[in-house]
User: Fold this.
Amino acid sequence: MKTVTLLSLRNQARQRADMENSTFVSDSELNTYINASAAELYDLLIGVYEDYKLTSQNIAVVPGTDTYTLPTDFYKLRGVDLVLDSLGNAVTLKPFNFQERNSYLFTPTWNVVGLSYLRYHMQGNSIRFVPVPNTAQSIKLWYIPAISTLSLDADLLDGVNGFEEYVVIDAAIKMRTKEETDTSELERQKALMITRVNAMAANRDAGNPEKVADVSRTVPWEFWAFRDGS
Assistant:
């Protein structure tokens, strides 16, 4: 992790745009540019699916209620677990397609070994489960939160490993665009940063790079069978 303050980002952006002593772009407006650029960098990091910002939150499912509000900072879902006990043991739930919304209405709530047949579907700002739960259960959502807005000078941006340079360059481009001055060199630098982020953000666990997931290890409710993967 390599963090940088909003104040530092502002100063660097002004330097990169050659507008250190200019008031043409106010601090408030520059903060807006920086936050927009930070969101772009965040998407580049999220897009390599290396779970830089992965977090989780539990939902207390109650009998008779099938729809629950997603966390207020929710951005992208990474997985849904049915928590089985106080030790945190869990099984992975599968989604259902919208076209299948009525397919599970008459599915038994529990299978022969006492586990739920629950499936889920995201709908707007909510997540819906079918069949309708008839017992209290705990669901853990694994998700990527939305990026936080930088507003105070001391607020920190995680540049990971100098990737905040993207934010500096892109904010400088926005400043020069407003000033109607040339941005070609900055655009070239931005393209190089995109290439760098895409190349270096991937394979975060360099010793054990990502591979195709063995989805058969996920509990298939219909048959309750594991595969040993051999």
